[in-house]
Every structure is written in C-alpha cells, then in structure tokens.
Fold:
Amino acid sequence: MTDLQIAKKVTLKPISEIAEKFGIDPELIEMFGKNKAKIPLSFIDKDKAKQSNLILVSATSPTPAGEGKTTISIGLSEALNKLNKKTTVVLREPSLGPVFGIKGGATGGGFAQVLPLEDINLHFTGDFSAIEKANNLLAAIIDNNIQSKTNSLGIDPRTITWKRVFDVNDRALRNIVVGLGGTSSGIPRETGFDITAASEIMAILCISKDLSDLKERIGNIFIGYTFSNQPIYAKDLKVAGAMAALLQHAIKPNLVQTIEGNPAIIHGGPFANIAQGTNSVIGTLTGMTFSDYTVTEAGFGCDLGAEKFLDIKCQSANLSPKAVVLTTTIRALKYHGGADLKSLKITDLEALEKGFPNLEKHIENIEQFGLTPVIAINKFESDSIEEIELIKNFAKTKNIRVAVADVWAKGGEGAIELAKQVIEVVEANTTQFKPLYNWENDVESKIEIIAQKIYGADHVEYTSNAKRQLRRIKKLGLDNLAICIAKTEKSLSDNPKLLGRPKDFIITVREIEIASGAGFLIPITGDMMRMPGLPAHPASEGIDISDDGEITGLF
Structure:
C-alpha cells in the first residue's frame, strides 16, 4: 500500500480530543476544520518546557535512496507514548516545491505518519502563503521607495539583496528584470525569486520567541545600501508592523495528530542546506510545555540540520537536548561505500562496511556537542540479517547504542527498542550539551570551527568577493551573529560528488549573505540553488482530485 492508502484507512480523532491529550482546553484552540488547529502562543510555559526531555533526530549524509528522519521521528514518538511517556513530535511543514517536484512530502510514511496527509502537504493552514505575502510586501515597498520622488531613502538598486519568493519550483523565475514598461512602472533592475522556504521571513518566523520578537527581527532585515553607502534595514521603510500583521496567524503552531492518535505539532519549514533547517522555536516550546518527551528533527545530516539546530536554535532559545537519534539505513551506507544506486537492495557487506566512515563522522559530530547518540537503523524489506548485524557490531566497537526501527511497517511498535534506548540515555543524565562556538568569536574563526570540526575540512578559503563582504559585515557591527553555512547536503564537503568521509579537502566560501533579522550570517559554498527546478516528469503529473473531492496520486 502507498502512504496515502494507509492514511485513508485511519479514522482521525477530533482535534479537540488530541488537544485534551495535551492538557489544553479544546475551547481555547483555534480550529481549522475538524482535524487541525492553531495553538495560541499564550500556552507556552517556559518553566514547564524546561522539565521536558528534548530529543533531536538527525541522520547520516543524505542519499537518493532516502534515510527517513521524519518517519523515525514519528515512529519514535509513537513508541514513547506506548511506553507511557507523554510525547509530542514537532516537525517542519512541507514545501510545495518538493511535493510537486521529485522529493515528495514531509509527513512520514507507512504506519509512521502525521495526518491529515493531504491537508498538511497541500497549503495546510496557510502559513507558507502568509510568509510569501510578507516577504513580497517588503519587496514591493523597496521598489516603491526607489520609484518615489517624495519619500525616497536613496536606495541604490544595485545593492539590494532582497528577492521575492514563490512556493513552487520554477526555474524561469531565478533571474528576472523588474520595472519594465516605462516611467510609471518602476525603475528597471535585476532581481529574482527564491522558493518560499528559503525566505529570511521563514527563518525569522522559526527563530522568533513571540510576536514582539518577530516584529523586531523583521525590522532588522538588511536590505542594501543608499547611494551614500549607508545601510538600509526594513525598519527604515516602516514596514515591519504590516509584515508582522500578515504573520499574526502563521506564527501560531499547528496541532495535528499521528497515525496512532497522538499529538503532533507542525510549524515552519526552512531548508537545512541554506537556512537553519528545523521547525519553529515556538512549536518546540509548545510541545515541551505539555510533554514529558519532545521529539523533533533537523534537516539532512549532522553536518547541516543538527549543527544548525544546536549552534543556532538551541543557543538562541536556550534549549538543551537530552539525546540525539542518528538515523541511517543500510542502503545509504552501501551507497556511501561505493555501491551503485541500482544495486542497493542486494546484500553487499563489503560496500556496507566501506560506508561506515560516514556514520562514524556523524557520531563524532554529535559527541562534540557533549550529546549521546543512539543509532536508529531505519529498516527496509531488502535489509538482510547479516547487514543488520554488521552495523550492530560496528556500533558495539564504538560503544554506541543502536536499535533497528521498523516503523514504516509497524509504527510505534517497531520503535520500542529504540525508545527504550533513548529513555536509558535520558535517565542516565550524563548529557553536557555545549555549543561548538561562541557567537562573539570573529566570523572567520566561527566558519573555520564548523568546517574543520564538523565537515572535516583541512581549511577554509575565501574568494575576493567573500573577503570584501567580511569587511562590510565587520563595519556594520554584525560579526557577532551566528553562522549558517549554505552547503550541499550530499557530502560532508562542499563537493556533492565526495561521498563517504572525505579528507584533506578545502571549503571555499564564495560569498556571505546577511540575514540580520534571523540573527545569522550565511557563508555560501559550492553552487547553491534557492529556486529549484522541476524534473522532466514532476510528481504533479500523478496528482488528481475526483468530483467528490478525493485526492489521488499524492505519494
């Protein structure tokens, strides 16, 4: 059966019943139909949240075969609830780009899903739309100010860094010219579109603590320079209030349910290769307020999502995870060991063992933060007993906990062993979480620390453009911001072709973007794409809706 067929066999509980599991008065949540709701920010209790055990789910370096962090996160939360640990899973919202493109949605799979699948993957509660509108309002205000003869700040159009966004993969919008059509239609300039998940507004929404913080951060968005070389921020355009007003509902976390009827919060969706790659601080704190255990995930591997979760989100929100689940698959490790993509279902102990260095590096990355990893082997039908035992023996030599998680086929029941391992780590209380770097360090040293300690690079090199931007950042007084490196997810290096655990490589920073509203700098390495394109046969070709409203072809 497909994920959608499995989901349709489930009778959803009223969302009011799910709220009661939280201990929330159903009368106080904001309903979006029968099966989803918004939770007011007033429900967050930071003292209660401190008592919750935060569990991060990460993974080895992604492969075309897929690793399944979201599926493991959901399955683990189901298993913890089965063990009488009041648990909430907190996840990101799916972008329509992957949904209609090639990757698919982000609601888990099999018997480890969050529901209603169709709603979550298609518009959901309109959060992405609100982010898109707020982002594009700022873009419109910028162009209007450039055009104005009576209210101009003297913005130099050549320095504007702000782009419009759109939540569909559309390569034709990557580079455009606006302002054509004569003097009444604006000042012509080059610009472009990013996908909505890449918007700084998305990053801001997911790092903000409340509405006031959101508004202040929006005001701190760096726009560019005036002709007299003075920096311009969104607050100079007096637009922060209007943008925050558009986000008044989007800032509230969304309550849905798992396939087994447990609470799930889904909120925000920044990508991990270009932003912080994890759900909102508000969503996480809401889950922690009402749960003994809160399970959350960060995008891609420990070199991207997990590092940013720990160094950016946790430092900003004063969060401290109690354990990290390191998701891997036998197929992924064989791919990193040199096996061909078409042969991953065939037992190959040699290729599997050759892939262990990638797993080993991600283990080391977690331990550098003072955290205890638990390896979760996301089980597939093609996995052989010999291959599973080989990973277990490897973990044993490293003195690392490991468990097979058969959550796609068995749901929470398939993650009981994993849940027990996580509980043991939490109750041992040996975690001493420590971020990798201090935000007050200079920019170059922060980048170097991440590149050397997390990626395993020999050193970092900067293009002349990046060096010039470093000097500007220091002059602007923004060198004390966190670092959010944009890098390929396919490799520990900045070269997607270097699989496994590459060594003696150089990280090249070609430019550095300022995301002062979100509170970080974005050193860009490699060829990063902020507006993906569609494949020759996009997933949208198989999606349809019947006359009676039944959606088909969605996964």
Remarks:
- The mean pLDDT is 95.
- The first strand starts at residue 30 and ends at 31.
- The CA atoms of residues 109 and 477 lie 46 Å apart.
- The longest helix spans residues 127-147.
